[in-house]
Amino acid sequence: MIKAVRGTRDLLPPDTALWNFVEEAAREVFRLYNFQEIRTPIIEDLSLFQRSVGEETDIVSKEMFSWPDVSGGVIKSGLKSIGQLDEPAKPGLDGIRRPQTLALRPEATAGIVRAYIEHDLNRTGLLHKLYMMGPMFRRERPQKGRYRQFFQIDAEVIGPPTAGSESPSVDAELLEMLAQYLERIGITGWTLELNSVGCANDRPKYNEALRAALAKDLDKMCEDCRRRAITNPLRVLDCKVPEDQPIIDKLPRMLDYLDESCRQHFQAVQDLLAAVSVPYVINARLVRGLDYYTRTAFEFTHGALGAQNAILGGGRYDGLSESLGGPKAPGIGFAIGEDRLVLALSKTAEEFSAPPDAYLAPLGAGMDREAAQLARELRKQGIVVELGDESFRLKKSLETASKIGARHAVIIGENEVKADAFAVKNLATGEQVTVPRAELASRIQERRP
Ligand code: HAM
C-alpha cells in the first residue's frame, strides 16, 4: 500500500469546504484593498532562495527539497557523467558545465520578487499589490500545524520609492487588512506581535553589539549559534534550542539600535495602527526565519494552535529586489499558513455543506436517457442535481437521496415522461406532488432554505 509522503496529506471533502471558504474570503478582502493575483512556478532555481531567504537560515540550510536538473534521472556517484542536461548550463569559472539546481519553493516572496524583476514591473512607476495562494515545501519535522507540503496565502506590496513603497502607511494598511480578514472569517483571540529589525544602515552596529555580547557565552551555545555568531549574528535570536534561551534573552535588542529614520518609521506604523484600532504588542525578539527582512517584522499568533502558534508572518524587505539584481523596489508582505488558519477556525466543515437540491431517480429501462436530459435542463437553471440510475429500485433511490442529504427526489418513470410532469418528493416532509416539467426548477428552488 503506497501512502502519502511523510509530512504531506490529503485534504478531503467536507474539510475542503473550509479551505475554499478561507480562500474565497481572502480574495474578497484582497479585492477591497486593490490587490491582484499573481501565480509563479512551484519550482525555481535554488540560488533564488539562497540569495533571498538566506543560506544561514534553517529553511535554506536544512529544509529545501532540491535536485540537479538532469534528464535520465539517476546520478551515479563515482561516475563522471551525471546524466544529460536538459539545457546545457553555462560553464562555471572552472569551465565545467554543471546542471542547474532546482528547488521546490519554500515560500512565495522570493518567486514574486523574481517575477517583478523579470517582467520589469518597476517600469510602471506604481505600487504593485500582488497576492498568491498555493503549496510551499519545507523538509521540517512534521507535527500538528507543521507539514512538509503546506499552503500559504501570500500578499506583497512592492514598487519604486516614488510610488510610496517605503511609507509606513503601507505597513499599517497591510496589518489592518489582516485584522479585517481574520475578523471576516471569524477568527478572534489573535495577537499581532510587532518588531523592527532595522536596515542596512543600523544593522552592522547591532551585529557588532550582538557579537560582543555573545563572545563570553558562545562556548556554551549550540553549534548553529556558534557559527551564526560569526556569519549572521541576527540568526542567533532565531535559535530554538532550550538551553540557549537564557543567554539569548539577555542579548541587546535591535530596537535600541535603530537609526533615526527606522525609529521614526516604526513609530509611524504604531501610530497608524492605533488610529485604525488594530491592537499589537511589541516583541523585541521577533526576527523571523528569513534573512531578507528590514524594518517592520510581524507575526499573528493564536493561542489555540499549541507549539506552532504563528498563523501568519511577514515584514518589509526594502533591499530584496536589489540583492536579486533588480531595481530599488522596497516592499512588504505576509504569508498566512493556511493549514494553521483552518485549525484556528471555529467553524466546522458541516456548516459549509451544500447538499444537492434534487436527486433524480430514473425508474426502469430507458429512463437514464430522460433523466440525463432533465438534469441538464435543471442544472442550466442553477439547480444542484445528483443523478441516480435506472437500475436502482425506487426504495434504493430514495434511500440514496436521503443519505446524500438531497432536499427533493424527482421520480422519472415512463408515465411521468409521457405526461411531461414528474413526482417531486420533499424528503424532509415526505410530501409528494406532481409538477409539470416547465415548473420543476422554480418549484425546487422555492423550497430552498
Ligand atoms: P514564514 O514565517 O516562513 O514567512 O511563513 C509564514 C507562515 O507559513 C507561518 O506563520 C506559518 O503559519 C506557515 N508555515 C510555515 N512553515 C510551515 C509548515 N512547515 N507547515 C505549516 N505551515 C507553515 C514566509 O514564508 C514569508 N515569505 C512571509 C512573507 C511574505 N514575508 C514577506 N512577504
Task: Explain what the structure shows.
With 449 residues, this protein is α+β, with helices and mostly antiparallel strands. The chain is built from 15 helices and 18 strands. The strands form 4 sheets. The protein has an 8-stranded mixed beta sheet, sandwiched between helices. The protein has a 5-stranded mixed beta sheet with strand order 15-14-16-17-18, with helices on both faces. Strands 2-6-3 form a 3-stranded antiparallel beta sheet. Helix 12 links the parallel strand 14 and strand 15. Helix 1 packs antiparallel against helix 5 and helix 5 runs parallel beside helix 9. The longest helix is centred in the N-terminal third of the chain and has 17 residues. The radius of gyration is 28 Å and the shape is elongated. About 1% of the residues have low confidence. Histidyl-adenosine monophosphate (HAM) binds next to strand 8, strand 12, strand 13 and helix 11.
